[in-house]
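Appendix B, example 12.
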Amino acid sequence: MRALPRTLGELRQSEFSEKRYGGRTVKQEMRENLLARVEGNEPLFPGIFGYEDTVIPQIVNAILSRHNFILLGLRGQAKSRILRCLGTFLDPVIPVIEGCEINDNPYVAICRHCRQRLEEQGDATPIGFLPRERRYVEKLATPDVTIADVFGDIDPIKAARGGLYLSDEQTIHYGLLPRANRGIFAINELPDLAGKIQVGLFNIMQEGDVQIKGYPVRLPLDILLVFTANPEDYTARGKIITPLKDRIGSEIRTHYPTDLEHGIAITQQEAWLDRGSQGKLRLPRFVQEIVEEIAFLAREEKKIDRRSGVSQRICISSMETAISNAELRALRHKEQVVVPRVADIYAAVPSLTGKFELEYEGELRGAEAIARDLLRSAVGKVFDRYFADADLLAIVQWFDLGGQLKIGAGGSSRELLEQLKLIQGLVDKIAPLGVKGKDDPALVVAAAEFVLEGLYAHRRISRNEERGFFAEEKKRVEPREDSPRHRRSFN
């Protein structure tokens, strides 16, 4: 690899020439790199699912237009992740004046100290290089954020040591925004930022100046400013000042996954699935679908506050907890395959209840009860995809004739399978799930239990913690005296 230039004189003769880097802004740099990736048919936002036809084209247009922009969306819609991906559109490295706090461009210095160095040292001025990873600066807006945090403050010690007046630009201890010069500065939850800081931001965006301790300081920073906010906060009067909104070039709305496949892809990517344990994880497709359906149903549930949103983290957390429950069961019974079942998703209810805010009616019902209702409804919806036209009457009749089965969440797969085989036709009906009776017992049990849970979701059979699965009371038929009672229980 060719050595990077170390002085301004060497820099002028290198690929980092003044012609290319002299007047090139960060927005122009991102535009050029974005166009090159589009031309090379390279992925623009790897790991972002469901935004290919909605959000990503709008972000691309904002970058090509050299706009500052804001992402508006509820929690858990990958807003921060998208902003962190923006750094990939920056050059791998850029030249800076070595030791400069605000990453000054050697060809267009804005810092007074750097301008003095260039006058004194000329082509011998030392040059450093800033990698793209250090050109992205992010700040979470909270009410306690101060002007000093964002823009900087007067440093009296600096003034005393240098024999400078406090009004001298060289006495400033720079904040996050100036230190992000020639890079990307991201602010999460913009409406939570104090009004005086918002005023400072639009001054930087438009006029390139800011007042620090009453002293006007000219800082023509080269920055892409990007923000995130909740739509309700962003449009509420008094939370964001109008002149700042007017200076934001593009307003882009994010959203939750619109179809199941995108949700599954996100959960697979984000959830901790590779445990490195002895048991091999086999994650049934129907279990994945149930977990995602819970989120879809929760976002439409009237008892849940829609303004707060239901994050995709509800799927990630519940999937991880369900796998942990299955992992523990496999370890206890020394099984080589870890297969999550519907019972394991019920064990993950504590991972669901903290992920949504309830309306008044929901508070009366309780978070756990609502989570269980959502899970039951999700099982019913997924069950219909696989068994809408299936004839499951024989299974229902087994329970109607007095059959009863309690499936313990911690039971051995082989023992549970023997109990499930007593239900006439049950194991024969799991083929639509891609599982056969000769497959690993853990898979067969998970599939058979799903069938029973589906019948329970549609109220064709009943279930409770004490008795397990049994016939719906209104359908219960007492067996004839000459017929054996098909009553089975397993804990």
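The chain has two domains: 8-253, 260-475. The longest helix spans residues 367-387.
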